[in-house]
């Protein structure tokens, strides 16, 4: 469904992404993108979303050239993003219901007057009550804000979600519930996930395949279990060794 070939991104004179190639199949499916801080993971995601400019390479969605698109409306509906920063991702001046309604109106997804009912459906889909529509982001917990961000992404009925460290800002118990939500939504909506994360346990739970980035290049790729439990590249072994372990376990 989504194919990246020889993607290269520079920030000034710095080579952030160096000829990266990835393939994401039809959903339900998950591709994990892991690597140390500064390895280029988030830049790959932003380039796929057309939030940063790629210097060379191709990104294709169902065969269409994404980097050459003049109108991005259809692509924006098909490929959505869930951000790491649950506070910065939502306008502090908009109630949750207004933020979701805006999406529905911009993309003309439901008839005028039907937005409120659809907002309730979206909130229910991510495990929130209808009364959350009246709240501002600062009145929600971190987990609830992330659920609102997921609901906003699902509002346009996407086929791909780019998940950029979606649980790293949450505490462990909240993270577990959000991961259960991601698993359920992936199956219910046949979604494909491009998961950008430094948390190997999260990647193993949500992704069948994993690619490892080191200094902007893919140095290892394969089935997630094989990559994480029998790593071939020194960078992957370093990431694996950094996972905390209890003595004697």
UniProtKB/TrEMBL annotation:
Gene Ontology process terms (BP) = transmembrane transport
Q: Which part of the chain is the ABC transporter domain?
A: 2-240
Question: Pfam families in the record, alphabetically?
Answer: ABC_tran (PF00005)
Q: Which sequence ranges form a coiled-coil region, renumbered to this chain?
A: none
Protein keywords: ATP-binding, Nucleotide-binding, Transport
Under the heading Gene3D superfamilies, the entry gives: P-loop containing nucleotide triphosphate hydrolases (3.40.50.300)
PROSITE patterns reported in the protein's UniProt record: ABC_TRANSPORTER_1 (PS00211), ABC_TRANSPORTER_2 (PS50893)
GO MF term set? ATP binding; ATP hydrolysis activity
Is the Metal-binding keyword given for this protein? no
**Family under the similarity heading:** Belongs to the ABC transporter superfamily.
Q: What is the protein name stated in its UniProt record?
A: ABC transporter domain-containing protein
Q: Which organism is it from?
A: Nocardiopsis ansamitocini
């Amino acid at each position: 469904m989504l194919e990246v070939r020889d993607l290269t991104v520079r920030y000034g004179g710095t080579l952030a992404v160096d000829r990266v190639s990835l393939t994401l199949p039809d959903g339900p499916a998950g591709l994990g993108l892991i690597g140390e801080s500064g390895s280029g993971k988030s830049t790959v995601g932003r380039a796929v979303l057309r939030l940063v400019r790629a210097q060379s390479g191709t990104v294709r969605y169902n065969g269409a050239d994404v980097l050459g698109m003049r109108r991005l409306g259809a692509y924006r509906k098909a490929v959505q993003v869930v951000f790491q920063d649950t506070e910065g991702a939502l306008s502090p001046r908009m109630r949750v219901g207004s933020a979701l309604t805006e999406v529905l109106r911009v993309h003309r997804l439901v008839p005028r007057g039907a937005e409120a009912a659809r907002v309730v459906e979206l909130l229910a889909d991510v495990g929130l009550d209808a009364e959350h529509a009246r709240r501002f982001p600062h009145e929600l917990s971190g987990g609830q804000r992330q659920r609102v961000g997921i609901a906003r992404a699902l509002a346009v009925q996407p086929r791909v979600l780019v998940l950029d460290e979606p649980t790293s800002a949450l505490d462990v118990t909240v993270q577990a519930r959000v991961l259960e939500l991601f698993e359920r939504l992936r199956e219910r909506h046949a979604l494909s996930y491009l998961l950008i994360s430094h948390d190997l346990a999260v990647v193993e739970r949500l992704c069948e395949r994993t690619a490892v980035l080191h200094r902007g290049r893919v140095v290892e790729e394969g089935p997630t279990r094989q990559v994480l439990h029998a790593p071939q590249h020194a960078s992957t072994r370093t990431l694996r060794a950094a996972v905390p372990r209890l003595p004697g376990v």
